[in-house]
Amino acid sequence: MSNPMTTLLTNIAELVTNDPEATDLLGLIENAAVVVEGSQVAWIGPAAEAPDADVRVDLGGRTVLPGFVDSHSHLVFAGHRAEEFTARMAGQKYAAGGIRTTVAATRAATDEQLSANVAHLMKEMRAQGTTTVEIKSGYGLTVHDEARSLAVARQFTEETTYLGAHVVPAGSDPGEYVDLVTGPMLEAAAPHARWIDAFCEEGAFDADQARTILTAGQAAGLRPRLHANQLTYGPGVRLAAELGLTAVDHCTHLSPADVDALRDSGTIATLLPGVEFSTRQPYPDARALLDAGVSVALASDCNPGSCFTSSVPFCIALAVREMGMTPAEAVYAATATGAAALDRHDIGRLIPGKRADLIVLDAPTHAHLAYRPGVPLVTQTWIAGRPSL
After folding, report:
1. What's the pLDDT tens digit per position in 282-298?
2. Alpha helix stretches (DSSP H) within the chain
């Protein structure tokens, strides 16, 4: 068997490695090079010391960093909610009930229409440097529609999440719906999902219901995660810590006890600043979490209601400007910690042995992601050692 082809990426002004052995957070190497062998990183270091390779690519003094890992999105849906957004900008308060508008449109859409919309959004994400994305169901809320939503999502990613517990459908009894979510719906959804999620929030599911749902999912072989503390203070974050979840998402309204629980459990707080931008809610206090020793991830929460952006760079800029993170912390949160939030050890770092998922920025440093918000800096996106953009 012949050896895989090797590619030397050189003339890199700044290489972000996220090397855990480095003395700085991002493991920065200036005037760097990367050797890709097949689908993996084979070598990193100063360009002057780079080994020979089959192919040489001169990156012209640009920045290279790991591909963004978007660990929270809702891409399987139909329709839009621009009118709802417009009403919020005129002063109307955001509430979870708007999800039901998307549920009706999604149920009416064909599989082909849903797949085409996901493909469109995935193309947007790739162009902005996202190389791994998690996709939830949650806009079907029937046995048939949740299962087909996950089957659509599985065409695009292995990181699929069953979110039958998004809201209680209109006209349904909450207790009977939880029985459905943990029974026939779970049975139909589980073959297409890696994770199970619940929206533990006022207007959605309480802590006891969320516990029941996540426990049932675990028994079916799914990994649990949770939406919590988005709209108000509540028990969701402490429930996530108690259950030892890999990650809990939103974390907008936190008490000191919530922060302590996250720190002590090691549960990652995945922050979604695009939501606060789009709903005019207070931003999460990332600085307080980081200073307390909590691991923080950043993700887009791309969805048609509370946050219709597919741009992780935009979320990085918001995290720096509005949430007290440094550019380095925000980049790390969207790469290495994003991978950890999906319990993935093969991505999120550019060191030998990891998958060669990387992006090239038309900029001399990673700080330009926050320094030049809204500018399309990503010029190349590589997935598993091959350019996809």
Report:
1. 999 999 999 999 999 99
2. 82-89, 99-108, 111-127, 143-154, 174-182, 184-189, 207-219, 236-243, 256-265, 273-279, 286-291, 312-322, 327-334, 336-341, 368-371
